[in-house]
Specification:
Pfam families: Xan_ur_permease. The protein has 463 residues and is an all-alpha fold.
Length: 463
C-alpha cells in the first residue's frame, strides 16, 4: 500500500494505493464494484437513448445494452494491463460517450443502424489510431476553449432529450402525464439531495440510489414491464453483425469528426488520472490510451456496440478516494464484461421506465454542460476574442438543434452533417480558434498581456 504523500512540490495527492499497488482481494472487489456502480448508469443510458430514438424493440435494445457493457469491460481491462502497444496501463474506466448520441440517433433514423456501425468500424481506429500516432502535432488545435465548448454543447443538446424521457418518452400514450413528471422529479430530487448533503460513498452513488428509489416507486405503482426479461436467456455469446454493416459517406465523415472530439476527452481524462501523482501522462500512455479508444470501438461495432471512451466520473473517484491502483480498475472491467455476457442484465436495464431514466438524464446532461463551463472558465480568459468564439459556437450549435428546418434547403448530405449540434459547435470553435490570433491559437500565439499591432492605435477598447 502506498501511504506516502505525492503532494507538495509535484502537486499530487496522498495516495492510499499507487498505480501498481494491489489492495487485498476483498477490498479490491468492493472498490471495483464502486467504479461499476458509478459508470453503469450513464454508459447504458447512451444505448437506451439511441435505441429508443431509432425505434428498437425490447430484445434488440437489450442486446445493444449488453454489448455496451461487454466492450466497456474489455476496453477497461486493456487500458489497465495493455495488449502490445494498445492500452495506457492507467486506471481508466471505459464506457460509451454522450458525444455520439446525436449522430448515432440521426444516422440510425435516416439510414439505419447498419450505417452507424459501418461508420464506427471505418473511423474508430483509423482516426484515433492516427491521433495517437501524431498526438503532439494535433493537441494544440484542441485547447480548453475548444474542448470546453464541445462538452457544453453535448450537455445542452441532451437536456431536451432528458425532458422527453421525463415526460414518458416521445410517442408514449401517457406523454406528459402527472405520474411520469412525478417520477422524474423524484429521481432528480433524490439525486441532487444526496449529492449536495450526503458524504462518502452515498454521495458518489447518488444517481444510482436515486434511480433505485424511482424504480421502486414505479414498481409499486405497477408501471414496470418485465416482459423483455422473460424473452432472453441468462447467458449468450455475442453474435457479430446483428444489425448489419453499411458504409454511408456522410455517416463516415460525421463519425470521423466526432472521434477527433472524443479523443480530446480521453486525453483530458488521462491527464486527470495522472494528476493524482502530480504529473502528466507520458507519450506512451497517451498513445496507448488513444489506441484503445479507437481499436475497441472499431471491434465493438462488429457486435453492435457504440464507441467506447474514458469516463470522467471514474477519474473523479480516483482523485476522491486516493485509490489509483490499475488492478482495482481491471477488476471493474472484468465485472462489466461478465455483465455484458448476460442478456438478462441488458433486458433488466430496459425495464426502467422512461420517466425514471429522464430524471437521471436531465441531471447528467446538466452536469456535462456545467463541467464544460468549468473547463472554459478555469483555463480561458474570457476576453472579446474568446467571447465571440463562445457566442458563435453555442449560437450555431443550439440553432441547428432548435430549428433544424432552417437547413432544409441544403443538399441532404450537408443537411445531415451540419444539423448535428456537436459537429456545428466543435467545427465553429476549432476554425475560429485556429485562424484568429490569441493565446490558445495554434497558429498565432498571442500572449494575453500583448495587444495585436493593428488594434494598438485604435484608441480605447470597446470591451
Amino acid at each position: 500500500m502506498s501511504t506516502e504523500s505525492n503532494g507538495g512540490s509535484n502537486g499530487g495527492i496522498e495516495l492510499e494505493y499507487g498505480l501498481d499497488d494491489k489492495p487485498p482481494l476483498g477490498k479490491s472487489i468492493l472498490l471495483g464494484l464502486q467504479h461499476v456502480a458509478v459508470m453503469i448508469v450513464p454508459a447504458t443510458a447512451v444505448a437506451y437513448v439511441v435505441g429508443n430514438n431509432v425505434g428498437l424493440g425490447g430484445p434488440d435494445l437489450a442486446f445493444i445494452v449488453q454489448m455496451v457493457l461487454l466492450f466497456s469491460g474489455l476496453a477497461t481491462v486493456v487500458q489497465a494491463y495493455t495488449v502490445g502497444p494498445v492500452g495506457a496501463r492507467l486506471p481508466i474506466v471505459m464506457g460509451t460517450s454522450f458525444t455520439f448520441v446525436g449522430a448515432a440517433s440521426t444516422i440510425g433514423a435516416d439510414f439505419g443502424l447498419a450505417a452507424v456501425f459501418g461508420a464506427i468500424l471505418v473511423t474508430g481506429f483509423a482516426v484515433e489510431g492516427f491521433i495517437g500516432w501524431q498526438f503532439k502535432r494535433i493537441k494544440p488545435f484542441f485547447p480548453p476553449l475548444v474542448t470546453g465548448l464541445v462538452v457544453v454543447i453535448i450537455g445542452l443538446y441532451l437536456i431536451p432529450v432528458g425532458m422527453d424521457y421525463a415526460a414518458g418518452g416521445v410517442g408514449a400514450d401517457d406523454y406528459g402525464a402527472a405520474h411520469n413528471v412525478g417520477l422524474a422529479a423524484l429521481v432528480l430530487f433524490v439525486a441532487v439531495g444526496l449529492n449536495l448533503f450526503a458524504r462518502g460513498t452515498t454521495r458518489v452513488l447518488s444517481i444510482l440510489v436515486a434511480l433505485g428509489v424511482g424504480y421502486l416507486v414505479a414498481l409499486l405503482a405497477g408501471i414496470v414491464d418485465f416482459s423483455a426479461i422473460g424473452d432472453v436467456g441468462w447467458f449468450a455469446v455475442p453474435s457479430p453483425t446483428r444489425f448489419g454493416l453499411e458504409f454511408e459517406p456522410i455517416a463516415i465523415v460525421m463519425f470521423a469528426f466526432l472521434f477527433l472530439v472524443s479523443s480530446m476527452e480521453t486525453v483530458g481524462d488521462m491527464s486527470g488520472v495522472t494528476a493524482a501523482e502530480g504529473r502528466n501522462p507520458t507519450d506512451r500512455e497517451f498513445r496507448g490510451g488513444l489506441f484503445t479508444d479507437g481499436l475497441l470501438s472499431s471491434i465493438g461495432s462488429l457486435f453492435a456496440a457504440f464507441p467506447v471512451t474514458s469516463f470522467s466520473q471514474n477519474v473523479g473517484i480516483v482523485n476522491f478516494t486516493g485509490v489509483m491502483s490499475r488492478h482495482v480498475v481491471g477488476i471493474c472491467g472484468v465485472f462489466l464484461a461478465i455483465l455484458g455476457l448476460s442478456p438478462k442484465v441488458g433486458a433488466a436495464v430496459t425495464t426502467i421506465p422512461s420517466a425514471v431514466f429522464g430524471g437521471a438524464v436531465l441531471l447528467m446532461a446538466g452536469m456535462v454542460a456545467a463541467s464544460g463551463v468549468r473547463l472554459i472558465v478555469t483555463h480561458t480568459e474570457l476576453d472579446r476574442r474568446n467571447m465571440v468564439i463562445v457566442a458563435v459556437s453555442l449560437g450555431l450549435g443550439l440553432g441547428v438543434t432548435t430549428t433544424p428546418e432552417a437547413l432544409a434547403g441544403l443538399p441532404s448530405a450537408a443537411e445531415t452533417f451540419f444539423s448535428e449540434p456537436v459537429i456545428m459547435a466543435a467545427l465553429s470553435a476549432l476554425v475560429l480558434n485556429t485562424i484568429v490570433p490569441g493565446e490558445q491559437s495554434p497558429l498565432f500565439d498571442v500572449p494575453p498581456a500583448e495587444t495585436p499591432p493593428e488594434s494598438s492605435a485604435a484608441g480605447p477598447s470597446d470591451d
